[in-house]
Amino acid sequence: MEINPAVTFKHDRSVMYAKRPRVLIVGAGLAGLTLGILLHKAGIPFEIYERAAEVKPLGSVMYFNCTTANLFKQCGIYEEFLALGKYVSAIKMCNENRELEFSVDFEGHDELYGANGYIVSRPQIYDLLLRQIPKERVHLGKKVLSMDQGGNGVLIRFSDKSEAEGDILVGADGAYSAVRQGLYEKLKKTNKLPASDALPLPFSTVCLVGQTRPLSPEEFPDLAIKNSQFRKFIATDKMYTWNTSTTAQNTVCWGAILFLDEETSKDNDAFRNSEWGPEAAAAMCEQVKDFPIISGGDKILTLQDLIDRSPKELISKVMLEEKVFKTWYNYRTVLIGDACHKVEPTNDVVK
C-alpha cells in the first residue's frame, strides 16, 4: 500500500488488522535499540534511523538496579549483561576529606527481588544492545527533516532526500528530538499542545564524564575488590558533586557535575547542545582536576589522576536539561526516552 500522509486519510481497520505494523524508530540510542530488540524478538518489522554518521563510544557508567533484570532477560541478554557488569553492594557517599559520610546499601536484593544491581560502562551496554539488532535494520546518517502521519500510516523525510514509510513512528532521538519538534509544531497549529510543552528545555547542570584505560590494582587498588566501588563526593563550599566507580573491565568511570545558578548558567550557555563530544571538555577538566578521590590504597589521588589515564575520546562535557513533557504520543507517533522525559545525570540510575 502506497502511503502518502500529505493527503487526508480515513481509518481502514480491515487493512490495519490484516498485517503487523511496521515501526519506524528515529534514534539509535539506548531507548531506540532496546525497543528494536523487543520488536525483533516479537517478529514485528522495524527500522532504526540515526542522524549520526557513526556510533561513538561516549558516556561514562550506568547503574542498573535489581528491577531491570527482567528487561535483560526478556531481551535474552541477561547472561551477557552479567558478564559485562560489576555487582554494586552499596553507593558510598563521601566528603572532600575522603571520609565516608554514609552508605546506601543494596545487600540482600537478590533474595528480596531475585536479582542484584550492576555497574556497566555506557559504551559496553550500548555495544551489547547494538549487537542484538540486525545490521541492515540500522541506518546511519539519517537526519529527519519532517514527518507526517495520517489514517493509514506515517512518513518521514530525511536530509539526504530519502523517505521512509511505516505504520508507527517512535521518536527515540534525544532531548532535542526532531520527531517531537515536528509533532509539537503540528499540535501547536491546532491548539492541541499544552503551554508547558511549548517552553524551551530548562537546564541546571553541566556534566563532565570520562573513563580510564584498563588499570592495574597497583594504580587503583579498588580494582582488586570483587564488588564495584561506587563513590559519590559532595562538596561543602562549591556547587559540585563528583563520582568514581570501578568496572569489570578494570577501568574507572568518573564524572563531575556542576549545578548552575543564574550567573554560571550564562557562563555555560555557549556549551548548550545535545552532542556528547570531547572538544568542550578541556576547560572543565582544568576546573575539577584537584577534586579529591579515594583509590582504596594509601595513594592520595585526585580527578587529575583519572583524567591523565583517560583517552581523550572518552572524555566529554555536555549541558544537560531536565523536563518531563506532558505530550508523549499523538495518533501514530510516540516519544520514548530523553525525547519525552529528559533527566539530568544525578538521576542516571536505571530502575
TrEMBL record:
<keyword id="KW-0274">FAD</keyword>
<dbReference type="InterPro" id="IPR050562">
    <property type="entry name" value="FAD_mOase_fung"/>
</dbReference>
<feature type="domain" description="FAD-binding">
    <location>
        <begin position="22"/>
        <end position="347"/>
    </location>
</feature>
<keyword id="KW-0472">Membrane</keyword>
<dbReference type="Pfam" id="PF01494">
    <property type="entry name" value="FAD_binding_3"/>
</dbReference>
<keyword id="KW-1133">Transmembrane helix</keyword>
<comment type="similarity">
    <text>Belongs to the paxM FAD-dependent monooxygenase family.</text>
</comment>
<protein>
    <submittedName>
        <fullName>FAD/NAD(P)-binding domain-containing protein</fullName>
    </submittedName>
</protein>
<dbReference type="InterPro" id="IPR002938">
    <property type="entry name" value="FAD-bd"/>
</dbReference>
<feature type="transmembrane region" description="Helical">
    <location>
        <begin position="21"/>
        <end position="39"/>
    </location>
</feature>
<keyword id="KW-0285">Flavoprotein</keyword>
<dbReference type="GO" id="GO:0004497">
    <property type="term" value="F:monooxygenase activity"/>
</dbReference>
<keyword id="KW-0812">Transmembrane</keyword>
<dbReference type="InterPro" id="IPR036188">
    <property type="entry name" value="FAD/NAD-bd_sf"/>
</dbReference>
<keyword id="KW-0560">Oxidoreductase</keyword>
<dbReference type="GO" id="GO:0071949">
    <property type="term" value="F:FAD binding"/>
</dbReference>
